[in-house]
Amino acid sequence: MSKLGLITKGFVKENPTFVLVLGMCPTLATTTSAMNGLEMGLATMFVLILSNIVISLIAPLVPDKVHIPVYIVVIATFVTVLQLLMQAFVPDVYKTLGLFIPLIVVNCIVLGRAEAFANRNSALDSALDGIGIGIGFTLSLTVIGLVREILGSGSAFGFKFLPSDGILAFVMAPGAFLVLGYLMVLFNKIAKK
Amino acid sequence: MEYILIIISAIFVNNVLLAQFLGICPFLGVSNKLSTATGMSGAVCFVITLATVVTYLVNRYLLVPFGLEFLQTIAFILVIAALVQVVEIALKKISPSLYQALGIFLPLITTNCAVLGVAITVVTKEFTFGGQAHLLNLGEATVYALATSIGYGLAMILFAGIREHLAMNDVPKSFRGLPIALITVSIMAMAFLGFSGIVK
Please, what is the end-to-end C-alpha distance for chain A in angstroms? Predict the structure, then answer.
């Protein structure tokens, strides 16, 4: 596969949210607005790229029996790095995303890519795979966040264009499931033709 | 009184699946059949309660005294992974019949974010049950974990029941599988919103 293909396959063909259906918890919980979705996507991408690179480098050295615990420790280390960086530089974002930053450790996308791709490919290819899947995840989260923000609070990326408040339910829990469900239908209709 | 508030809050008002979005992957994955949903709920209930107690103690007596709170994420996931292994081995020896029922679900639980989520929540979030905001003590944390996992089981079993009926209906092609499931969960979440306001 070409280097460019490694990146672009994450956008539609192997989109982590709509096709692979991985990492549903942050997808539903943090997409109350487009900006929150974007930030969560970027945070996950950071961990995904770094853990992909390190795991592709150490994979040949790790005995098969303990590979999952080793991978989890690698991922948890980068999540801790991310937590400390975010607390230092963007404390507001860290506060909004809250619990879901440490929960990147158990995000199945990260461990899934380590198992399915990084452990049998070169560091460069794994980094590109991380970038591609990361962008795909970020895009999906931003789109879900945008739809929920428009319907729920009448604004887009914080820019208010409706005088009223919008339908509150879309910002709350039911709206998350509903928007994701309908976007998945739309995605199926368009992408799987 | 305080314990009752915690229980009602964790099961109905802030349901772990329908309001907090923790543990959605296994929720969507194994809710096709009522029997597997029940098995998974049992296993999750067991592991969440046990893991919360152990991580609470690890945090209180190991991480906090040495000023190592920043290692919480790494320490907790290791404790949970080890615990799940131990539970699996112990269950195999002590109660083969229970192991038969829960066995296949146990390895999946390590990556169930509800377990890590609850463990982190009880040591970091301040609750306002019965007066002013405070961190939970061990008793409250245990009750909170148990009630949360009951809420998980409740939502999971209800949903599995609905999904079994859904499978027999003629659903439009693009909606088949996950999309219709998500829309169903949305309606369930809306019903659970009715409980909000009972406990602050």
Answer: 23
| Rounded distance between C-alpha atoms, residue B186 and residue B162, angstroms | 13
Q: Side chain identity at A132, as an amino acid letter?
A: G
Q: pLDDT tens for residues A2-49?
A: 788 888 888 888 888 888 888 888 899 899 899 999 999 999 999 999
Q: Do B24 and A24 touch (CB under 8 A)?
A: yes
| Alpha helices, H only, chain A | 3-8, 24-29, 34-58, 67-89, 91-97, 108-116, 123-153, 173-191
The residues, ordered by sequence, that sit 6+ positions from A112 with a Cβ below 8 Å of its Cβ are A20, A22
CA distance to A41, A64, A106, B79, B85, per residue, from A69 (Å):
24, 10, 12, 11, 11
Torsion angle of alpha carbons A135, A137, A139, A141, nearest 10°?
Answer: -150
Q: State the Cα–Cα distance between residues B151 and B119, nearest whole angstrom.
A: 16
CB-CB under 8 Å, B73 with A102: yes
Nearest to B49 by CA among B154, B147, B155, B129: B147
**Interchain pair A173, B19: CB under 8 A:** yes
Task: Return all residues near A152 (Cβ < 8 A) that are at least 6 apart.
Answer: A32, A166, A167, A168, A169, A170, A171, A172, A175
Chain B residues in contact with A21 (beta carbon < 8 A) = 28, 178
Q: Do residues A45 and A170 make contact, with C-beta atoms less than 8 angstroms apart?
A: no
Interface predicted TM-score (ipTM): 0.86
Q: pTM here? A: 0.88
Mind telling me how many Å the CA of B115 is from chain A's nearest CA?
Answer: 10
